[in-house]
Amino acid sequence: MSHHYTRGTESDTRWCNACRRRTQFAVSAGRLGRCTEHDAPELTQEQKRRREREAQRRQNPSLFPDSLA
Ligand SMILES: [Zn+2]
Questions:
Q1: Which residues lie closer than 8 Å to 29 by C-beta, 6 or more apart?
Q2: I need a surface site. Which of 42, 43, 49, 56 has the fewest CB within 10 A?
Q3: DSSP symbol at 32
Q4: Residue 54 Cα, ligand 1 centroid: separation in angstroms?
Q5: Burial degree of 27 (CB within 10 A; 0-12, 13-18, 19+)
């Protein structure tokens, strides 16, 4: 299945498994991004970055040699 977004599209209503309802998803450069509702305001940008780093560290420990000890 393919979705095409026009350049001006900034959001789309999609089903969110986390919210268990239809929510607004961000669309950036024609690509569907994340749910803007459960993902949004309680997390600061820094908290999101830290979460992503932690997830990457768990998935690819070799990328973070200091975490091997
Ligand atoms: Zn959601």
A1: 7
A2: 42
A3: E
A4: 21
A5: buried
pLDDT tens-digit profile of 23-69? 999 998 888 988 888 865 566 777 788 888 889 888 887 776 775 55
Distance 65 CA to ligand 1 centre (A): 34
Structure tokens at 62: 């070799």
C-alpha 41 to ligand 1 mean position (Å)? 12
CA of 18 to the centre of ligand 1 (A): 5
Residue 14 · residue 39 · CB < 8 Å = no
Which tokens sit at 43?
């997390």
> String of b and e for 11-26 (b: at least 16 CB within 10 Å)?
eeeeebeeeeeebebb
